Amino acid sequence: MTQKKKIAICATSIHQRSVHRMMSELGSEAAKRGYDVQIFASLSDLYHHSENERAQSQVFELIPYDEICALILFSETIKDDNLRNQLAKHAKQKGIPVFSHKQFMSGCYHFHYDSEHALADILRHLIEIHHCKRINFITGIKGNDIAEGRTQVYREILKEYDYPIEEERIGYGDFWGEPAKTAAESFLMSNLPLPDAIVCANDAMAIGVTDYLAEKGIRVPKDMIVTGLGGIEARQYHLPLLTTAIYDASLSSIYFMNTLDALMENSRNVPASIAIPCKNVYTESCGCIEHDTHEAEKHLMQTYLQLERERQYSHATHDFVNNINAEGTFSALTDGLPNYLWGPQVTEYNLYLDAAFALSGKWEDKSITERQFILFHQKKKQCGQIKKLLRYQEYTDQERNLYGESHQILTIPLNVEGHIYGIFSMNYQGTQINHECLYELIMTLNSALHSIHSQKDLLRVSRQLNELSEQTIQSLAEIVEAKSEFTGLHVKRVSEYTRILAEAMGYSPEKVNIIRIASMMHDIGKINIPSSILEKPGKLTDEEFEIIKGHVTDGGKMLQNASGEIMETAYKIALQHHEKWNGTGYLGMAGEEIALESRIVALADVFDALVSKRPYKKPFTAQRAFEIITQDSGTHFDPQVVNAFRSHFDRFLQVLASYEDQEEAI
């Protein structure tokens, strides 16, 4: 195997204490053995597959596969199965071994914790040391492999000591606190004698059970012992301190690195599945250790001081964002950032900002490996200036410069509204970094970038509105509508209905205003249609209907060469607002082929036509119009837009009442 000694680690939710602790220990152990480590992490666990999460996942595109000797996936934290598998596949194609922590992945070295042996040792401890005769067990979800496996261990240990297996002493707590309380309640109501101990298949359930027993006046451990499994963070702050088996980060790191060393030495005796022993901790909840008030107060004081520091840092970062909001510039961010490193205790970093965004404020939808970046560097409280424009090929060279005595780098994406605008890489001395403050710092950078992005968007919109004011657009639209005496305030109402729907569909306030203004020109093509056809009281002939249909293409031609986001949006709306979701509209476009803005205006336009007087019909009631539109969901209209209409129908009625034509009392 190649003798490159660099490891890439992929994880999410690194701000969580357990993940941070594991990263820190693994990095320290790797450094002792002469390895460099680069951690690629997102703050989200990528579970929801949102645009924002897809942007964050781009950070994994930066993995230098040609430089690493192993890829370690903290696969349980990465909830996107496809991403996880793609990362492993890419590494294996390069001949790089892949280690998967906790989650089994085909073709990867699987590192998992031997919880079953730890559970067996806890049960033996209760029987042999505490002489428990009646032991109840709360497992996880019924039918779940892990839950059933741990239940089997419970049965085997009872059998080992010739204890009777009583099914009423087994409960299901679904691996969390509230169901575990319900299981404990059923134990107390059972006809069987009360148990000497309740053993839980994880710590969350054990905490829930202990709290429930306290509510019932049952003291732990004096009246009843309770134990857990897994060593979650909350157990350290719980009274009494739980007896449990913890997933020891230091021991885990040794197992990882022993395996990698064996692979580096071309050993053929490396198993594909590696079981890491858990560390059993027998403390207050089983009675092995008496509660130490002094130690508890000391721990409480340390926790308070840490929380106070994090609170102060949170306030400081809010001031940082306020300063950036006031100035709205990148220099406010890059110049101010070095003053806010004291919370997470970052000593050196590289801040990369997407060059197109930083220089012009415009977003270019490119892969992260196709972009240019502007580098900002800071080391030991000395803020560097802009270095130069960097291409992706130069990015790796800059990252190498971050390796210091810790031999570790942490790389995190900076993203705004589904777009990755930058990268933050830091010298990662895990034992010194405050993970909560680091999370606060990254979120502050994201918030600052969002503020700058929004202000630049507002300036662009303002310039566009100066070039072609809303009043001019409305006047132009009203000139067109004036060809028919029956349309009245149609333009104004449609624009307000459009505003309501665009807001409901999740557009930003700036984009909502653009769509609202653009909607006023939806019928601009009617300027070419004779008034005799527009005002005809009877049914149109086929030839006349074809002329009417032509107003969408005429409107599109009028607007297609106009510049600015408003006019570009108006062009799409004018051309497409008579399209139908099922493809039976004027141009035959269907589904998402139709721009969402056009789908919104289509509903707004039809609603207003239904409730308005026309030469060929009397106005429908608003309720009847509501029924027609909802019935046409999935045929005429986009179902999601119809859902927004349903949810905000009361606002439609307010608009209708505010801009009611005098002849159209509903």
Keywords:
globular; 47% helix; Hypothetical protein af1432; 4-stranded parallel beta sheet; 12-stranded mixed beta sheet; Rossmann fold; 666 residues; 23 helices
What's the gist of this structure?
The chain is an alpha/beta fold. Among the domains are: 114-246, Response regulator (Rossmann fold); 469-658, Hypothetical protein af1432 (Orthogonal Bundle), CATH 1.10.3210.
Mean pLDDT across residues: 88
* Number of separate strands: 18
Quickly give the CATH architecture of the domain at 469-658: Orthogonal Bundle
Could you give a short account of the major beta sheet?
Answer: 12 strands, mixed
How many separate helices? 23
What is the terminal separation in angstroms? 81 Å
The CATH topology of the domain at 469-658: Hypothetical protein af1432
CATH superfamily of the domain at 469-658: Hypothetical protein af1432
What structural class do the secondary elements suggest?
alpha/beta
Bulk shape:
globular
Helix content: 40-55%
Commentary on this structure:
The chain is 47% helix and 14% strand. The protein is α/β, with parallel strands linked by helices. Among the domains are: 114-246, Response regulator (Rossmann fold), CATH 3.40.50.2300; 469-658, Hypothetical protein af1432 (Orthogonal Bundle). Strands 1, 2, 3, 4, 5, 11, 13, 14, 15, 16, 17 and 18 form a 12-stranded mixed β-sheet that branches. The protein has a 4-stranded parallel β-sheet with strand order 7-6-8-9, with helices on both faces. The protein has a two-stranded antiparallel ribbon with strand order 10-12. Strand 6 (135-139), helix 5 and strand 7 (170-172) form a beta-alpha-beta unit. Helix 18 packs antiparallel against helix 19 (565-576). The chain is globular.
